[in-house]
Amino acid sequence: MVCRDNITQFNYSMAKTNDSKPNGYALSRAWFDFAFENQGMVSGNHGCMFLWFLEKNNRMGWAKQFGAPRDETMAAVGITSFNTYRKIFSDLVEWGFINVIKESKNQYTAHIIALSKNDQPLIQALDSALIQAQGKHEYQHSSGTDTDSVAIIKPINKETIKPQTKKPISGKTTFSPPTHIDLCNYFYEKSNDSKWTDHDCNFQAQKFIDFYSSKN
């Protein structure tokens, strides 16, 4: 038996929409918040069984009460042991996720259950932890100070930036030919009139540079 004072209680009311109907996404989100708050106590079987009850309730139009047959639940969760099923089911009841309206009398009858309406506040620690983990990850990769991380070093572009015009010498201005990028940009601007493709623009730019180089 788990003492409720030692765990973060499930907040069903926070998983409702404005029309008081439960929302499947909000309910599953609340479950993972709970699981994060109670690590070491919650197993995958707990989550799978609770999500199955959400799915079943959703298919029934979010009925206030619905049947949960044992064999059906065990098949959906993938549990083959009755003892395991009983423990997982009891934990969900004890933790406040479901209420048992009527217990089954034997293996041929179903539990009648309802999603819990626990109004205890839910501590949203998962969002905070995820944000902190992401921030730490980005810091480690940017600083490179952590031994388990690899620093990301951006390559330095060593390409020399050529000036368009050289400084005047003896009052004269020396012509500097346009770069390949300058020519491509020029042809791109004129491409609407000439209907040139990107390949045509690159080809003409290179052709101009080759011609200029052959003359010098």
Subunit arrangement of the protein: single chain
- Termini distance? 91 Å
Q: Which outline best applies?
A: rod-shaped
Largest sheet: 3 strands, antiparallel
In total, the number of domains comes to 2
The residue-averaged pLDDT reads 73
Write the element-wise H/E pattern from the N-terminal end onward. Answer: HHEHHEEHHH
The CATH topology of the largest domain is: Arc Repressor Mutant, subunit A
CATH architecture of the largest domain: Orthogonal Bundle
Number of strands: 3
In which order are the strands of the major sheet placed?
Answer: 1-3-2
Write the layout of secondary structure elements.
Elements: H1 24-37, H2 44-59, E1 66-68, H3 70-77, H4 82-94, E2 98-102, E3 111-115, H5 125-143, H6 180-194, H7 198-214
Antiparallel strand pairs: 1-3, 2-3
Helix pairs in contact: 1-2, 2-3, 2-4, 6-7
What is the compact description of this entry?
This protein is mostly helical and 216 residues long. It folds into two domains: 120 residues, Arc Repressor Mutant, subunit A; 56 residues, no CATH class. Helices cover 47% and strands 6% of the residues.
